[in-house]
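hey can u check if this looks right to u? its 292 residues, i copy pasted from the old doc so theres a chance i mangled smth
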Amino acid sequence: MNRSIFGVLPLVAFFVLTAGCRSSRSGSGGDANTNAAPVWQRQPLTIDGSDKDWVKPLPYFDKTEQLSYSITNDGQYLSILMSTKSPQEQQKIIEGGMTVWVNNRADKSISDAKGIGYPLDRRNDREQSIMAQARPDKYKPKTPTLEDRKEYELYDFNSNKDSAIESFTYADENPAGVQMRMDFNNTGELIYEAAIPLAAIFPGNSSHSYVGKSIAVGFIIEGLPPDANVPRGQGGGGPEIGVGGGLGFGSFGSGGGIGLSIGTGALGRGRGGNKQMFRQGQVWQVVEMARH
């Protein structure tokens, strides 16, 4: 074997280990930002956990996390749609939790970004924690459904940094005017829609003009715990994911960009595609605000 290969392998191993040790709070985003062609949202969108009023096919797909998504804006809102038909990815999102971040500096980083946390990480579920503490001998965690996901959180939308994390009941409105809803469509795809006021993304912009400004949108999907019941393969074959009725609070649209997906964290047990479920995934997209 060529000696040069032996010199390269340690470097490869170093970079792999370095990437795996980064946390979501460090905002690891990979390659340099690439601006997409701006897309103006011409028709109003109804945020109801349905993708019927979105243009198909969605323009972007991340193979690692099996996500299709679209981002757009009008003069008031940034609009986001994410969908996945993978039963494994659906369970990973519903059970492990997901946060959508918007960085107004177009950095693929959650540093100084604003986020919407829904569903919340199962390990931070207060109701389950109370039940587990009250009856540790009887309590057995169940595979959650959307109906079980009753809370969402907003990160850094409040100008008061002493209360940077705000918690709300899923169907409640919030002072920031953020709208969001998650549900299944009639073909079984998990749909996430959100609408974020541009004024909340760019606070202090007195001109209210956002043309030419770029942002980075990140989908941070937490990994499932090793004790999760994992569906086998794309066609099921394992425990079914509870669909449940989608509750919600919001609205959103479509858009464009060049995405990046990375996985970090420790692998759990399982084989093949199941390993991906046990670690965190990040998908980032940089887009430019569209003009009318």
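The mean pLDDT is 76.
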